[in-house]
Structure of DUF2187 family protein:
Amino acid sequence: MTIAEVGNVIEFRNGLQGIVEKVNENSVIVDLTIMENFRDLDLEEKTVVNHKNYTIIHSSVNA
């Protein structure tokens, strides 16, 4: 299992995407406002996603 880093874009739960803002031991905190249809989905701006439940779409280039 690859753990996301701050700045990565991840995808989870039926196509939702967000930018990782914080990495915790078992989960990441994700900012969902990058999605074009964010306002239409009526979601909170941030959510918590377990490491088991996402895939990394884009890696951050801060290395």
Notes: The chain has one domain: 9-58. The chain has one helix and five strands. The CA atoms of residues 16 and 32 lie 8 Å apart.
